[in-house]
Amino acid sequence: MAQEDFLRLQLRWQIFMHKTSFKNHFLRARSLWDGALWQSELRALLNIGVPMAMTQLIGFLVFTIDVLMIGRLGPEALAASSLGVVVLFTVWMLAMGPVMAVAPMVSQALGRDPKNYSDVRHTVRMSLWELLFIFPFVLLLFWHAEKAAILFGQDPALSLDARNYVVMLAPSLVFGLGMWSLRNFLAALALTRFPLFLTIFTTLLNGGLNYILIFGHFGAPSLGLVGAGIASSLAYGISFAILLFYCYRQKQAAEFEIFYNFFSLDWLRFMELVRLGIPISVTTFFEGMLFNACVLLMGVLGVLEMAAYQISLNVVALVFMIPLGLSMAGGVRIGLAAGAGDRQRVRLASLATIGLAIFVSLCFAIIIALFPEWVARAYLNLEDKKNLPVFELIGLFLPIAAAFMMFDAVQVAANQLLRGLKDVYVPMLLTGISYWLVGFPAAFYFGLHTELGPIGIWVGLLTSLVFAAILLSVRLWWMVNRSSVWLNGQGDNMGQTS
Known about the structure:
Layout: H1 2-19, H2 22-32, H3 35-70, H4 75-95, H5 97-100, H6 102-112, H7 117-143, H8 145-151, H9 156-188, H10 193-215, H11 224-249, H12 251-254, H13 267-301, H14 303-340, H15 343-370, H16 372-377, H17 388-420, H18 425-448, H19 454-481, H20 484-487
Helix pairs in contact: 3-10, 3-14, 3-15, 4-7, 4-9, 4-13, 6-7, 6-9, 6-14, 7-9, 7-13, 8-9, 9-11, 10-11, 13-14, 13-18, 14-15, 14-17, 15-17, 17-19, 18-19
């Protein structure tokens, strides 16, 4: 009798295993940790991720070189350029969304069908159309930057110089975003090395043109701050033309004929880029403006605190470019997997991207946390005794900054992966909550109303990133595991989120 009960129980278990997806879940979970799959995914991620990370890092240096060269004109020119850059980056953050939307749209299209030339062509073409559409408005906005700056209490002469500077910079914004759109297209094709070399060329060309036009060398007029704006626009314009030619001539990219019938409007695709792009822009704006707002909070505490904050933030931003580039590559990888309806690859891409971003950030965080004085010495001349208080503050700030670099890596990886799944609206709300309902109030309270002072502002930033990392990670887990259609391997419209 006991044997019959055992056989009956065994039969029921086999029926259960057959009728449910439990066995499939178990087999998929076990195969997820297959060494060969991990090796393949990491190799593909690093193949496109390392050049993208280096491209982001070197691209960031363009602005550092501008600051160093404009600084030789004097404090007034440097202050005017700083005011102009605030205007430029505010517009940049709001305009970059549709460009960033190119990556998930192209990668998912190629995941569904690697020969889907028409779909990819329409996406890239409409992203360039949008840049042409916004350029007159950018120019008009920059032309009135002087009035806006005066309205916010800035010096009139400084505001005029800033206006002249950003008007000359306006073409560089459009050309730069155009290059980003084409780089996203090429990244989906795993063509990331040429854009890296082109970014190096752009950086060197910008420095050389700065030298000629700012200071008037080789017979050119000395144009000062205006010359810096012209130099950047020329450098980005030339590089954009080179990248266009590369997309036209490179064998794999040329198959998509992205310039074919260029002046034909695809209104639906145009609006899809806008629909995905607006929340991406708002998300970026939320984060960027939090760090800028904390500059003002530091300014309330004192000039030395603000100087130390700016240097510490520059260190963090420089390191951040590497996990950002790797995360952008992860967004491409997960988009390809999602387009192909491959849940296993979606999970692999998610885990590999977050793990790699954490690992890279951890390596730099350890160095910064253990040797903050060494990092500070690269920015300050310690023979000048006036710099010693700033040096001491940086020594306090950088260990905290090193701690939040880990959470920054998680949140940027999760955000880019969600974008790869075309999930943008909920992440926008989660980042808004993390940065402005949690982070800024915490920075304001701890920084200005407790004995922590400037340390309290960094605590507020750390708090915001912890919240963002947790909320976005939970959202990513839910997106990867939520759909029965997706689990059955039939694909899923990942953009349709509740």
